[in-house]
Amino acid sequence: MNDTTQDSLIPYDEIVQEALRAVVGRVLGQVEASNGVLPGGHHFYITFKTGAPGVSIPADLRARFPDEMTIVLQNKFWDLGVSDTGFTVSLSFNQMPAKLDIPFSAITAFVDPAVDFGLQFHAMADVESEQVSPAENDAERDVASRITPSEDGSNVVSVDFGKKK
């Protein structure tokens, strides 16, 4: 038997991240289908990398949030559109309307506080940069998936494949 874990030739981490991002797309698609009406007390906090490929936001917002930004979809949003690769939404910032185009690959967190549900993602740019980093000793890698429970007991899922702690 071999005590070292072999590197996977199947990109499990990418597959899981993509599947979890599809959850966000499906939820937003249901809201779009209901003409932007959120059911019950549901509302969403969506965090994304502002500099990620495909993100389109006004220049003043990019200047204020050069790395990451969180938007809230609750009461005042309109023109929600969802595609296979991302979504567009219009929001008001300091009483100025702004249209945002956000690919699902740029999302780093999705939270629905009404039901203590949340997902955390690695930004796709982070995943790509990890793939080009020098290989490390296979014996030191922990390739098990870890679901990290939130300290407050909420249902936040964070999946981490083979990251050194």
TrEMBL record:
Annotated region Disordered: where? 130-165
InterPro entries per record: SspB, SspB-like_sf
- The UniProt entry's coiled-coil ranges are none
Where is composition skewed (Polar residues) in this entry?
147-157
Q: Which residues form the signal peptide?
A: none
Give the species this sequence originates from.
Novosphingobium panipatense
Q: What is this protein called?
A: Stringent starvation protein B
Membrane-spanning ranges = none
